[in-house]
Amino acid sequence: MKLLGISGSVTLSSKTWAAVNKAVEAAAQADPELETEVVHLGDFDTVLCDGRNPADYEGETKKIIDLIEEADALIIGTPVYRASLTGALKNVFDLIPNDALRGKAVGFVATGGTYHHYLVIDHQLNPLANYFRAHVVPGGVYVHNGHFTNGIITDEDIEFRLNGLGASTAELTRKLGKEHARVPQPSIQR
């Protein structure tokens, strides 16, 4: 089984990448058979969604779509700008097929400058996962600048919560894998 971590940041030094990577590492420790990968959206030159069939995109846009479709589970993180997820991450959600996340475990991480935006996970990310019929892993983690020192997570509670999110994602993925192997999932057309 494959778990894909996505950092929705496009900046080179990303606190979001650090938090997502920490959760993905915890998932790999919880289930050593889980194949993991973490990608940074800033490394992809994706085009803006223009409404065409997702299968018709090419290049790096097609690559990120394929990575998401091939994953059995995801841990997705975003920095919070203007009380919302990044435009780059929103574009990825617009690009993927409607059934790309169906039946998959999805855990969320959000990062921000202060506690002001801690509800982004509940108010924006969870509803997106629900639209795609994904299974949201309880315990999404909001991390703010005070939890980092020189770009490294130093808050013990946040580390504990990210480890818990990773372990829970691995556990839910394992359980869903057994169930979804028996139940065919209908495809949704755009």
From TrEMBL:
Keyword Oxidoreductase found: yes
Record keywords: Flavoprotein, FMN, Oxidoreductase
EC number in record: 1.-.-.-
SUPFAM superfamilies from the UniProt entry: Flavoproteins
Ranges where the NADPH-dependent FMN reductase-like domain occurs: 1-146
GO molecular-function terms, A-Z: oxidoreductase activity
Record flagged with keyword Flavoprotein: yes
Matches recorded under Pfam families: FMN_red
Protein name as annotated: NADPH-dependent FMN reductase
